[in-house]
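Support request from a user on the community tier.

User writes: "When I paste my structure tokens into the form, the page sometimes reloads and wipes my input. The last time it worked, I copied everything first. Here is what I submitted, just in case something in the input itself triggers the reload:"
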């Protein structure tokens, strides 16, 4: 599963995930979802009107593309059998960059000396930001 999420998304935003397929019925069908430990997303299991359960990720901590451009999480579906059976899938999250950082010069002040007989259109100084 691939989610592309802008780093500007507010905490509390919900991201629906694909439902696991399980052809059993009753308590032997999917009962719960878990997600691998991470700093940004817990998974919440909800109930549909037809009795099936579905997972949603909830953004709990803001994303920052400059610190972590992508995350790879393991989503696990667990059934209610004895013993319980499970299935996993990878949820890959690409953090989409927004223009949240202003350019910075390498120095705060640049000083140059220019000979008075320099030709027109001469390079005086090169700066980088």
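"...and here is what came back when it finally went through:"
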């Amino acid at each position: 599963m691939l989610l592309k999420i802008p780093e500007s998304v507010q905490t509390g935003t919900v991201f629906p995930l694909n439902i696991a397929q399980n052809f059993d019925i009753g308590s032997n069908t999917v009962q719960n979802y878990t997600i691998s430990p991470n700093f940004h997303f817990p998974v919440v299991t909800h109930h549909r009107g037809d009795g099936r359960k579905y997972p949603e990720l909830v953004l709990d901590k803001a994303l920052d593309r400059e610190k972590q451009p992508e995350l790879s999480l393991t989503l696990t579906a667990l059934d209610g059998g004895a013993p319980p059976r499970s299935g996993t899938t990878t949820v890959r999250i690409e953090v989409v960059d927004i223009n949240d950082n202003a350019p910075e010069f390498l120095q705060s002040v640049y000083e140059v000396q220019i000979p008075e007989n320099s030709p027109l259109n001469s390079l005086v100084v090169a700066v980088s930001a």
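Agent notes: The reload is a front-end session timeout and is unrelated to the input. Residues 2-96 form a domain with the Immunoglobulin-like fold (CATH 2.60.40.60). The chain has no helices and seven strands. Escalated to web team.
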